[in-house]
Amino acid sequence: MKAKHQRLVLGLLALAAIGGASGLALSALQDQAAFFYAPGDVQGKPVPLDKAVRLGGMVETGSLVRKPDGVSVAFAVTDGKARVPVAFRGVTPDLFKEGSGVVAEGRFNPDGSFTADNLLAKHDERYMPPQVAGKMHKSETLKQ
Amino acid sequence: MIAEAGLAALWLAAAFALVQVLLAWGAAREAVEGKGDQLMIALRRTTLVQGLLAVLSFGLLILLFVRSDMSVVLVVENSHSLKPLMYKIAGAWGNHEGSMLLWVTVLAAAGAGVALFERQLAAATLAATLGAQAAIGLGFYAFLAFASNPFVRLDPAAADGQGLNPLLQDPGLAFHPPTLYLGYVGLSVAFSFAVGALLMRDVGPSFAKAMRPWVLAAWIFLTIGITAGSYWAYYELGWGGWWFWDPVENASLMPWLAATALLHSVTVLATRDGLRAWTLMLAVVAFSMSMIGTFLVRSGILVSVHAFAVDPTRGTFILALLGIYIGGALALFGLRVGKVTQGSTFQLVSREGALVLNNLLLSVILGVVFIGTLYPLVAQAMDVQLSIGAPFFNKAIAPVALALVAATAVGPLLKWRRDSANALLGKLLAPAAAAGLAFALLFAFTGSAHLVPILGIAFAAGLAVASILPLARRNLRRTPIHIWGMVIAHLGVAVSIAGMAADTAFKVERLAAVSVGGNVTVGPFRVTLEEIRPTLGPNWSALEARLKVQRGNTAPFELLPQQRFFSAPPTTTNEAAITTLLDGQLYTVLGQGDEQGRWQLRLWWKPFVTLIWLGGGLIALGGALALVGRVRRELRERRDAAEAEHL
Fold first, then answer.
1. Is B584 found in the same domain as B633?
2. Residue of A25, A52, A131 lying closest to B371 (CB–CB)
3. Is B466 helix (H, G, I), strand (E, B) or coil?
4. Best of A5, A8, A10 to disrupt the B interface by mutation (most B CBs within 10 Å)?
5. By Cβ atoms counted within 10 A, which residue in A46, B398, B491, B531 is the most buried?
6. Of B305, B364, B380, which is closest to A20 when you measure between CB atoms?
7. Judgement on whether residues B152 and B198 belong to the same structural domain of the protein
8. 3-state secondary structure string, chain A?
9. C-alpha B151: how far from its chain's center?
10. CB proximity A140 to B under 8 Å
11. What are the pLDDT digits (tens) for B163-204?
């Protein structure tokens, strides 16, 4: 193989690799990117039922119910515009409590409620989950 | 006075960095024109002084934290007079300003290290390298001085500080950032070498040999940092996971992937004088990834693009620096790459060919992580909210990672320049048999439910056998140390992959609400909740569960998971209790209690999960052996050359 050719072949290989990476990433993105919803976004709108999504907002005060099995909870997530009932089985995070921010990862059910496999909770403005902080910030700017 | 002295040292270091850039230009010209080395000597000394001043500045910041000087804003916001001494010290870098000061300190110290120890490079190239290192430093000094001064005073002084986030109060985490930064910023040296080589059009084996120890050292620290960070997240966060594909983790993984590729391509350049342009490109990319990682973690952009837009000074500053340095280096690369003459060529079936494959696969993984980390940020800037989590990364990366494991197994068995495919097939019999046997056994045992993890274990078995083969038919006592390093590092990759796959396929999780005296089984264990009792620590109080654990009829042992309550700042953390056995770990977490007196217990039996970090340790150890071997060999060569001159 001539030197010139080798460089060309390596260059083409590198391009193919980058193309392959982008292709892989994009195809996986198609079915794996979890879109983020706030309760206000899903009110009266169709929601995807077959995909993992994230639902974020505040845990509505007075909505938290611990189930008799000792390991399941039900609560509602609110963003001030709407509320979505959420069911979760598992140990709730340390910072999970009524009135503080939460991001639930899971799926919507046909009746509009949400089943979470994972909860992410943070305790104050400084440690708010990114999407919630973004949403809150947006609704604040809208209010002004 | 200490704070003012620290700030003065910082400004002085910045001034010396400016002088260093000018001297470097002069010294490079002096060397090219063969006028002697007056400026070169001055340049080396300036670099040393700059490094010492930066270290002094950071040392003074640590002193402020140790003395709990509450007239300094940074100390008030991140420390507390009652904290244990270790966390007072760690508090100095457990925040934005302090960690940026640590960043630039490592940068300056690395430059000083090059000035002290580098004897391989042509004088002009060394001068250009030190100049480039100082130019990077200048930008970050400016960032500290104008946008994030760590020495700001608080008037009047506070009575006491706000404490450090309790999650960060852990010995493992205290030394995690410095380790990572040594790796991150160690790559700046490779970057400066590449810039220096491009400026002086001097790319070849001697340049690669000079760069290699620095890349190795940075890569070792990154490996240790990522491994330790993963273990910290595992036992501290109480979720039983060891990698979350969280942007902060990816920020450290991306430079590691680039550095791993660079480590292998620099070997081709040093040994066989091939892959010249590619190595330069990778050196630029590796440090670019470090800077991008720093930007992601330190600009607040991860918290929210919107929050970032509200207070954009710091983020924009770092972004501008990124643009200048990465853009400048890539532009230089583009201008000069045509002038980089072709190195030697090789056949496709050869050690070089395998290393090219390794580089391409690592680049693919890097590309996927990069897209997955940055895509949500771009989408968010366009007001689309989405998050990309583990399913995406696992799906996109697993097949490439398996191919990479295969390439890792094959590479060391090939000869340089050219090898015959038939000879290779003969060498691959034993690894292939090991992989096939492992796969057949596991498949018969578990069926197709966990196909990808089982493939992972099979590939790991094959790699484990293949990685030891380079030692076959060698006199082990006369084998060079760096060969041992390679063998151990590759074995570490096999061990780590096996651990990840075993945990993914075979972990058992149990979640139950148990009354005191009740029991629950998880995997082969029977766990009894003996009692719940309060305990006290130095700055926390806790509820502790006493669990009696029994495996079959063996002697029972105790585990004590806790829920800790900290008062400053008020937080609750979960302290998992973990027991390590030969065949895995039992991981226990105490949840909330309810009105009926039941307590939530979350239990995992994780077979062979420990292999993940053991493998990481082996990879770092292999790197360390390779570094020791190379440096010793170089010193010996230097001594022989010096003796030859005397004869």
1. no
2. A25
3. helix
4. A10
5. B491
6. B364
7. no
8. CCHHHHHHHHHHHHHHHHHHHHHHHHHHHHHHCEEEECHHHHCCCCCCCCCCEEEEEEECCCCCEECCCCCEEEEEEECCCCEEEEEEECCCCCCCCCCCEEEEEEEECCCCCEEEEEEEECCCHHHCCHHHHHHHHHHHHHHC
9. 28
10. no
11. 777 766 777 778 888 999 999 989 999 999 999 999 988 888
Which residues of A fall within a CB distance of 8 Å from B347? Answer: 1
Nearest to B452 by CA among B467, B444, B462, B442: B442
Distances (CA, A) of B90 to B3, B65, B174, B360: 18, 9, 5, 38
Q: What tens digit of pLDDT does each residue of B263-318 get?
A: 999 999 998 888 888 899 999 999 999 999 888 887 777 765 655 555 677 888 88
> For the whole model, what pTM was predicted?
0.91
- Among B138, B153, B169, identify where a domain stops: B169
Number of domains in chain B: 4
CA atoms within 13 A on the CB side of B352: 23
Q: Which of B383, B416, B449 is a domain's end point?
A: B416
The whole-angstrom distance between A111's CA and the closest CA on chain B is 23
User: Using the 8-state DSSP alphabet, how is residue B153 labeled?
Assistant: B
Give the chain B residue nearest A7 (alpha carbons). B342
> Would you call A117 an interface residue with chain B, using a CB distance cutoff of 8 Å?
no
Q: Are B206 and B120 in contact, with CB atoms under 8 Å apart?
A: yes
Show residues of chain A in contact with B371, CB under 8 Å: 21-22, 25-26, 29
Of B75, B90, B62, B83, the closest CA to residue B174 belongs to B90
Tokens of B238: 């109480």
Tokens describing residue B168: 């960060």
Residues making up chain B, counted from first to last: 647
Interface check for A8 against chain B (CB to CB < 8 A): the answer is: no
Residue B522 has pLDDT above 80, yes or no: yes
Chain A CB contacts of B378 under 8 Å are none
- Pick from B346, B371, B386: CB nearest A35: B386
- Helix/strand/coil for B528: strand
Question: Mean pLDDT over residues B63-89, rounded?
Answer: 90
Q: How far apart are CA A45 and CA B237, in angstroms?
A: 36
Interface of A with B in 38-97 (CB under 8 A): 52, 54, 66, 69-71, 89-92, 94-95
A37 marked among binding-site residues: no
Structure tokens at B67: 């003395």
**B433 SS3 class:** helix
- Quote the domain boundaries for residue B279: 175-416
- Do residues B353 and B306 share a domain? yes
Task: Let me know whether B586 and B625 are in one domain.
Answer: no
